[in-house]
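LAB NOTEBOOK - FOLDING QUEUE
OPERATOR: T.R.
BATCH SIZE: 2
PURPOSE: Compare the predicted structure-token outputs for two unrelated chains run back to back under identical settings.
PRIORITY: normal
REVIEWER: second-year student, initials M.K.

ITEM 1
FIELD SEQUENCE / FIELD STRUCTURE:
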Amino acid sequence: MRRNKVRAVTSRLLMMSIKLEPRFLDSRTEAAAVEYLRRFRLRNRLSIRRITHKGRRKRSEVQVVADEFGNSMRYKLETGSVLAGYDKYEHLYNMDQTSIYVDMNPKTTITFRGDRDVDVVQ
């Protein structure tokens, strides 16, 4: 059971590293890449731990961040993307009936080895 959880987190790291460096898997097998990331964690004294405390932000702080994100996404989508012009109405989705879960937070995170509590802020 524990091995599966470690594997899931290292797979996320692997996917992030592929986005940052597309040639990461060219000369490695998937098992070699996972082992490389495991050794990176050990070398930098990082460990995969279960989250022990989840803090909450105030609604006003979250609203400011959400408004800024929404405005920036709207600007980018309307000015220079696939959705610019009259074709943008072909890519609309009814979010009321679409089953997408937004608040699916992970149960584990990466933290420095030896930390007593693992706190995250959502």
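ITEM 2
FIELD SEQUENCE / FIELD STRUCTURE:
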Amino acid sequence: MFTPRFRIISLFFLSLFCATATFAQFSPANNAHLNYSSVCFEFPWVDKVVNYELILTEKSSGIKTVFVTKANKQIVDELIFGESYSWKIVGKDSRKKEIYSSVEHVFSIAEHFKTGKKYVRFKEVTNNSLTRGNELLILDYSGLVINRNEEIVWYLPDLPMITANSGLRDLKLTDDGTFLVIIDSNAYELDLTGRVLWKAPNDGSVSRQGKEDYHHDIQKLPSGNYMVLGNEKQRRVLAGEKDTSRYEIGTIIEYDPSGKVVWEWHAKDFFTDDLLKLRRKEDGRFNLATHLNAFNVSGNAVYAGFRDANWVLKIDKETKKVTEIYGGHDSGLPNHYGKELFRFQHDATVLNNGSMAVIDNDSIKDPAVVSSLVVFSLGQNNVPKGQEIFRFKFDYDSLCNGKSLKLGNVEELSNGNYLVNMGAIHRVFEVTPKGEITWDIFVEKLDTFKRVWRFYPQYRVAVTSSLYPNEFTAKWTPKKAKGDQLTGALSLFNVGSEKNHYIVSVQQENGSWVGLTEIPAIESGESRTVGVTIPEKYLNTTGKARLRVQARGKSVFEEIVVK
């Protein structure tokens, strides 16, 4: 919690003399009502200030806390829902003399029914702080972000497109510190306050059927594009049959930020009549459902998981051809690996070592079968493709039977452990690659009519290191010009929770960007200053240039005008 006493917190950033001023808005804005307890404060750079002091006052108690930083951003965690705060910035020069003081701003961390004790509760089974990870967890059906002590950090606020009957799925945080979510077959990107930043067109340009019917999975790619699953309805007579068959089959769509389709893939182009007729329902009719429910982009490959077909397909993004098949029953096709390894699976996560993890929901009707986390080879390190590497069965204790009919996902954590959402079992746990449980909870929701707590399974539980994983800020200090070139020192402050490399580019006259330099990795909470020379051809008529600093492999960036 927010510690109720006066304290000084230093971020140990490298010393930086600010010779010029650049400007930023004060954030949070005055009188803001926030739906999160981890706040990134931002304020303008001030000429000749060496150290900034963020003075934060808790209104109910009057207790002040001072945070000292050399950057113009400061993240403060564990503020209190229902509490109001005031804050101001004091700037001091190299002699520790106060040369700047901002006006006071006020804001509050707004309470909501989701933050109270009558919405959800978490029944903790295991919490080993020495061996578990520290990532935040994002519970999609609940619309919550919690920490490892099951404390709420963020909640999805009331939004116009969410009704009492809305379907909410696949809530996750992007590298940019924004949220993606699917609500009632529409796909959105939201900022932390719930403001819509982007909405997928859902215009039927891919399905040719009026809408795309987005479902299950949406991701933001390093390019800044968005990829999401869709559906299209089919109505045709299968080879050798007399009756017309009606079924849905999946699509994968990539959009650029403007909403233009830049890539699409149709499952109907792969699932031939022979493949569709491999499975039958209990009444003997063909089961044409394939149920695309997951994808993962890895290099030039897109892995697509089909629950009812029991397969994960590897798709060559350039040719759109399926090059490999994993799991399920024999397809009769070449390059089919790991047959019978999993059935009715959820998720298709490519791990850092090149293997894949899925939730093997399997056939829960069979009393001898329980659901499992399964990790298998994609051919990395000369391990045969489709070979099982690790399996962890869900009946690991007497608190549940281990049979998860549906839902579920797996996330690889920074410590190498797996965060597993058991889906229908309404349980989430962390397990080591050796099978040791390090953290374990049940999720329950209050039935407000009958006043009893009920199971609250989640479709997806995503993870993030913080609400600000790749937050950074940049400062330009000009130096004496060398001829017609512009030279200066560029200081980067990594205030986010992830270690990052950065790429510095300059804008050309035609609006495109060309790389100037790369900045080696900067750890969270640290900074680095590098010399930058900008050739005359990139300067405008007033001698200015526009620089873009971007975290490598991420779409997040900042732009600054230098002179």
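REVIEWER COMMENT (ITEM 2): The chain has three domains: 8-109, 113-464, 472-562.
FOLLOW-UP: none requested
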